[in-house]
Amino acid sequence: MQFSPERHDTDILILGSGGAGLFAALHAQKAAPHAKVTIAVKGLIGKCGCTRMVQGGYNVALAPGDSVERHFMDTVIGGKWLPDQDMAWKLCKTAVTRIHELENEIGCFFDRNPDGTLHQKAFAGQTFDRTAHKGDLTGIEIISRLMEQVLSRPVERLQEHRAVGLIPSRDGSALAGVLFIDMRSGKFRLVRAKTVLMATGGGPTMYKYHTPSGDKSMDGLAMAMRRGLALRDMEMVQFHPTGLLAGAGTKMTGTVLEEGLRGAGGHLMNGDQQRFMFDYDAGGERATRDIVSRAIYEEMRQGRTSPHGGVYISMAHLGPQLVAEKFKGMVKRCADSGFDLAAGLVEVVPTAHYLMGGVVVDTDTRTALPGLYVAGEDAGGAHGSNRLGGNGVANSTVYGGVAGDVMGQDCLKMQALHDPDETVLDEEMARATAPFAQKPGDVTALRDKLLDVMWEDVGVMRDADGLQRGLHRIDEIDDELSSTGVAADNLAFNLSWHDWLNLRSLVDMSRVIAQSALSRENSRGAHFREDHPDTGAMQDSYFTLATGSDKNISVARAPVQFTIVKPGETLLGADEAETLVGAAE
Amino acid sequence: MSGSEQFLDVSIWREQDGDGHFQQFAVPRRDNQTILDVVAWVQQQRDPTLSYRFACRVGMCGSCAMMVNGAPRWTCRTHVQKVAEDNHLQIAPLRNLPVIKDLAVDMDPFFDKWVAADAVFEPSQTRHDPMAPIDPQDPMRVAASEAIECINCAVCYAACDVVAANPDYLGPAALNRSWSLLNDSRDAGQAERLKAVSGEGGCHNCHAQQSCARYCPNELNPTVSISGLKRATAKSVFSWGK
Amino acid sequence: MIRPHRSHSLWYAFLLHRLSGIGLALFLPIHFYMLALALTDPAQLDGFLAFTDLLIVKCAEFGLVFLLAVHMFGGLRLMALEFLPWSPRQKTYAATAVALAFFISTSFFLQAM
Amino acid sequence: MLTLRLYMAQRLTALIMAPLTIGHLAVMIYAVQGGLSVAEILARTQGSLAWFLFYGSFVLAVSVHAAIGIRVILYEWLGVKGVMLAGLSWSLCALLLGLGGRAVWAVTFAGAGA
Ligand SMILES: Cc1cc2nc3c(=O)[nH]c(=O)nc-3n(C[C@H](O)[C@H](O)[C@H](O)COP(=O)(O)OP(=O)(O)OC[C@H]3O[C@@H](n4cnc5c(N)ncnc54)[C@H](O)[C@@H]3O)c2cc1C
Ligand code: HEM
Ligand code: SF4
Ligand code: F3S
Ligand code: FES
């Protein structure tokens, strides 16, 4: 089969339309008003990705008494001293500007206090009530407003365009463009650009239970690795303790039941309907995400499970009426799945939520490959080993905007587009069309297999044996995938082909996660090694750096640079209280 | 799994390049099964070429709406149990939008109208200004808030017969958003907005059929919003002369 | 015609209003024409009185009153919803409008018989 | 289709007609019930400027109102557009105005002149 891509040119190309992608488009257009800006995205503009799914809210140090320093310290301590401090600092500092931009220029509604000021609440792991929000649907508000702004501007839209390969210039010195599949027609399209932002949003969807949207399959990270870029912190997969468990046959399984349920006093109970959290931690149900996730996992491993193999969350003791009022959206969502959250028991399970790891970037979102910029969940560094609730969307909007500014400026300095390396182009097309040469097979079953492997061997709790076994099984799945085909008779909007491609990226990135997890022989934040439960000395903190492609992955360690504050020190004054949570109430 | 060999009798609209027909499938019935799960099962187990769209799978992105037994629904949050009639399901692409293939429609017209209704915030301040203090109980804020939680799923757009009959009609969702903005004290573009919703396809074409409100999965009421626009524009008739 | 997405009372209220509007637009000109014809006839009054006694004319008149009542209350309901503070009791209003229309037209009919 | 201007015209005429219609229906019901014969009613209206204005304004309003209403329906249900649509709407307006005017004249002044 012979494929040749349609060719298309632009100045600034943005992959993804989450918080990072949309912000980048707006900023790029402002920074370079005459440049052509193009957004290419796997779904519809603003309607895919995870930013839309943000519930809790947006961390920003705004209120009197709070400070960028305090936000920064929470971020660094929450990340167990692994964050890149310059990135974390810029995140906390710029979030203040960004929230004003969201409110004043983009038109977002954020909830107010009776006196008219912004209402902020506390997410776990914070020392201040810092999370701005719009009810418990903050992401819908942020993305809908950004989407309107983008749609009303002359930004070129390539919707349902899946990026499949980054194509370097002929001399290899820079990025020339990106190869896409126009999903609606099934044809290839090569888009050349002076600058490209990758904002495809990571997303650990290779776990049996996961929260991110169905369009996310770590394509971006897989593409970046194939161009030789290093990924850091890839072992750091955050699990949310309470994903809905509604059985294997429904896509609703894995979706988040919000943190606030536990915060409000919800009980977790095992299959015997006994509370168990206090057996693990003095904080009980209110302990941090990682601790609760591990406790639930342990109960499950001991076989004390609910019918679908998880545990229960129970809210009824708080008064069904009150629960129905306070958590209206969650109650309705559970009801749609046949559960009564207000008065009954709902089955839950830890669910893979966020990938802290990602491409190594500088604080201007530049990467080692000139012309390629990375922002949002695709970029590693800002969160270290653990992301605080509320720092995810702050990160994607802050750095998306930064990327737009920087790309706009850089693009003004560049004269011509690069000619693509046709060999790489052909390779990438061959890679994407590989399944057409094989006999059609059951991609879904194979995907389920990978999801089980990752959950069992590279999941909430890890050890060397399990990780080795996991790697071995991943290789098997890899081989099986290579011999599993997709019928090529009708490629227009062919989801089965895209399922195959999704699984390709997920297999590649699963290996990187497992290898990185094997390499880190201590336990920090989201990464827990049963054979190395200690955290290691903070001042000797290192992060993992994975490079290579396909089956040849190597993981190195690099020391964390404490550029702003060293372990044991703080930016807060000696007279400042350790925590001010709830002080305002 | 309830029952051993229980099957749903599902007919799914297949369309490519303008040719369309319904195709029958027997889909095993499961507990906690949504319409989206049924569609995905068919694509994964029976016909790999079946096209449809979803993203969030929890009612937040508004990508997955389809006509289910003749009514528009968000399929990821619609339980089979709730809508199946005698074990039968008829699943078709969302009404009033052009079909790309099978169950996937082109949503561009819907969003073009969103912009045409001037349903886009027009800032009066910049990021360097302080945030406006806003009383959450202020009647305007309350009105704006009541209309705001729209996921642009186009369910209302599919439910409305005026949209079907009048290609210019901006539709319930866009007008609903315009109304929300009209109550946004921070917005600087109200005069243009009133003009935008008063043209050939404007709010005055709504006959209060209220199918929009009936089917909106988020329990929004575009009829109320559109009535608000009608009032506001009618009022402006008496003040435009000034 | 009554496709599933339309099967709710407020859509029926819309349909009723529209059909009654069409009905009026068809019958009112006839009504006007007949009226003028009957009255401008040389045997003016006698002719008219005989005319109004015809059963068919009675029925037509009844129909007209019925349509007028249905349409008017439907229209007032619609304008109330457009111009007065919103009330969620739309369905009640729709039903009330129809009931009032029936009441008026029936009482007219009974009197006329 | 319906612009603000047409909308206002339709709603205003509706508001004018509502009391007139209620008045008319009330008279009819009351009259018939009260034993007034049609002849007696006509006798009252003949030569009355007030009744002329009453029915006259109804006819004016209904011509505008129904023409706009039918225009919408022709467009939405039958897909009539452009010149054809304008022509039909104006014709209905003229028809109602003509026939209605003649009827009002007949009820009020036509006979009174004699
Ligand atoms: C359920 C849920 C709740 C959350 N709640 C919170 C919260 O309360 N607070 C918080 O701070 N964070 C929260 N997060 C995390 C937060 O949503 C993410 O960190 C953040 O939104 C990521 O933004 P992004 O722009 O990087 O990526 P996304 O918003 O995920 O966007 C990625 C985009 O890339 C596109 N894409 C993917 N692959 C390709 C491809 N191959 N080609 C083209 N386009 C592609 C996608 O379609 C999408 O448009 C939550 C996440 C989830 C899943
Ligand atoms: C008596 C008082 C009347 C009131 C209060 C009234 C009210 C209304 C209103 C509010 C509408 C707009 C409906 C919409 O936009 O959906 C309307 C439409 C209409 N009216 Fe009337 N009307 C009255 C009398 C009449 C009369 C006497 C006629 C007929 C000759 C008439 C014919 C129509 C028609 C054809 C429509 C269009 C219906 C539609 O668009 O669905 N109306 N009326
Ligand atoms: S108003 Fe409701 S039905 Fe319409 S697009 Fe918004 S959420 Fe969907
Ligand atoms: S269904 Fe359509 S007619 Fe108006 S009330 Fe809703 S927009
Ligand atoms: S998939 Fe997002 S609303 Fe259904």
Q: Got a strand count of chain B?
A: 7
Any idea what the CATH architecture of chain D is? Up-down Bundle
Strand content of chain D: under 5%
Helical coverage of chain B, percent range? 25-40%
- Name the ligand types: flavin-adenine dinucleotide, protoporphyrin IX containing FE, iron/sulfur cluster, FE3-S4 cluster, FE2/S2 (inorganic) cluster
**What is the helix tally of chain D?**
4
Runs of chain B in which pLDDT lies below 50 for 5 or more consecutive residues are none
Shape of chain D: elongated
Beta-strand proportion of chain B: 15-25%
Q: N-to-C SSE series of chain B?
A: EEHEEHEEEHHHHHHHH
List the uncertain runs of chain D: none
Q: Briefly, what CATH class of chain D?
A: Mainly Alpha
CATH topology of chain D: 3 helical TM bundles of succinate and fumarate reductases
The total count of helices of chain B amounts to 10
Domain unit count of chain D: 1
Mean pLDDT of chain D: 89
CATH-defined topology of the largest domain in chain B: Fumarate Reductase Iron-sulfur Protein, Chain B, domain 2
Q: Which protein chains are joined by the largest interface, and how many residues does each one contribute?
A: A-B, 68 and 72 residues
Annotated CATH homologous superfamily of the largest domain in chain B: Alpha-helical ferredoxin
Explain how this protein is built.
The complex is a heterotetramer of chains A (585), B (242), C (113) and D (114). Chain A has 14 helices and 20 strands. By secondary structure, chain A is α/β, with parallel strands linked by helices. In chain A, the strands form 5 sheets. A 5-stranded parallel β-sheet of chain A has the order 7-3-2-11-18, covered by helices on one side. In chain A, helix 12 runs antiparallel to helix 13. Chain B is an alpha+beta fold. The longest helix of chain B is centred in the last third of the chain and has 16 residues, at 222-237. The termini of chain B are far apart. With 113 residues, chain C is mostly helical. Chain C has a domain at 11-23 and 53-112. Chain C has 4 helices and no strands. The longest helix of chain C is centred in the N-terminal third of the chain and has 32 residues, at 9-40. Chain C starts with 8 loop residues before the first helix and ends with a helix. The model of chain C has no long low-confidence stretch (mean pLDDT 81). Chain D has helices at 4-33, 38-45, 49-78, 82-110. Chain D is elongated and about 50 Å long. The mean pLDDT of chain D is 89. Chains in contact: A-B, B-C, B-D, C-D. The B-C interface holds B 67, 69-72, 95, 158-159, 161, 207-211, 214-215, 221, 223-224, 227, 230-231, 234 and C 3-6, 8, 10-11, 14, 17-18, 78, 81-83, 86, 90.
